[in-house]
Predict the structure of NAD(P)-dependent oxidoreductase.
Amino acid sequence: MLKFVGTGQAYPEKRAPEIRAEDFAEITQAYLAAKAEEQAGRCSQCGVPYCSTHCPLHNHIPDWLRLTAEGRLREAYELSAATSTMPEICGRICPQDRLCEGNCVIEFSGHGAVTIGSIEKFITDTAWKEGWVEPIVPARDRSAQSVGIIGAGPAGLTAAEYLRGHGYDVHVYDRHDRAGGLLVYGIPGFKLEKEVVTRRFERLRDSGIQFHLNFEVGRDATMAELRQRHDALLVATGVYKARAIKAPGVGSPGVVKALDYLIASNRKSFGDQVPDFESGALNAQGKHVVVVGGGDTAMDCVRTAIRQGAKSVKCLYRRDRANMPGSQREVANAEEEGVEFVWLSAPDAFDAEERVKGVRASRMRLGAPDASGRRAPEPDPGSDFRLDADLVIQALGFDPEDLPQMFGTPELSVTRWGTLRVDHKTMQTSLPGVFAAGDIVRGASLVVWGVRDGRDVSERMHAWLKAKAKAAKPAETVAA
């Protein structure tokens, strides 16, 4: 360890931009074992590991880096998996520059952070290859109690894994035809190849978790019926309602929502029939594309458009580069691949005839800080300009859907933002025995926070279910 002075930071090699822009495969090569051990050996093993404290999962990062440096990869994997249900997924898509690596002590010293995410990915990919990822073995048989989970995204799948490990009969309901939520349909393959998600799902299914796909609560069963069917419910639906731009012409053909666009692209990669893709409505090929937004979803859209063969791709964002919410690494990758960023700009209207033809926009300037502490953008008078556009993608983020109305459960309490209201000690909603976790509680956030919330809520549900079983039976027949 402590080799950071003599050994430089080295991320896995990226494929050349002109090559990687031709497909949806991941853009980086895998570490060789020797290189992973070398990079792990740069860790300073500091007394206060800021990398761990700034990881939502509080992963034991210095410990599994040391094990990796010593060539003890199986032990490194087991330690990594002790706190995370999806280490290889987080290693691929977490914004490490804002979390663990951004708070690495040797980064502060000017030597460059340890490449934590790439090593995490290497450890678990090796574990899958070597057969070290073992089936879930329930601690005891609690299958007399049943748990229903609504939503098969990161929070729901994580909770399902832990609850199955406790021995409960677990059922997962999802409205899509594949489990994974945005891991499958929202995130493009060049960031997260789908086989990586599929093998996680298959492991859960093989452990006895029952998946009910193409299942909509409110259509196929009411919330009340699910409550009758299960001893406890978890709502982990995520947030899918796109924030719309308020400007003339926003409803014109060719002005589309980011998630519709990404789902169509990901479905196409699975070989599905996608009529809106085939018709060109959700296909950037041969088009001038403008993406409005500056978060990770916007980065996914611009880089997808490049791979679909767009004539040009521009990203319109109302703040400057330093104040954008998306990962700076993603911005750099997009620029390498040919995306043009139009900073400090916001749309005023969309020109359209039969379909969109252009975006009229204004330059912005940063004024006084807003409630979030960031300087608020404001129009710069007399700075109007126009961009040609055959396809405009709205990527302004997501809000919660109206779950009380969708689920036919008006008594399900929500906050003023539309997220589910929970008791933060028990993680229960206003309905007894109905818990909630993930983005539907905290708002649109990172996958790693979904995993953390799924881990936390599984423990709250486990405690509640044990108390329920104890109340229903003589004390001596219920395990502690």
Summary: The mean pLDDT is 94. The two ends are 42 Å apart (CA to CA).
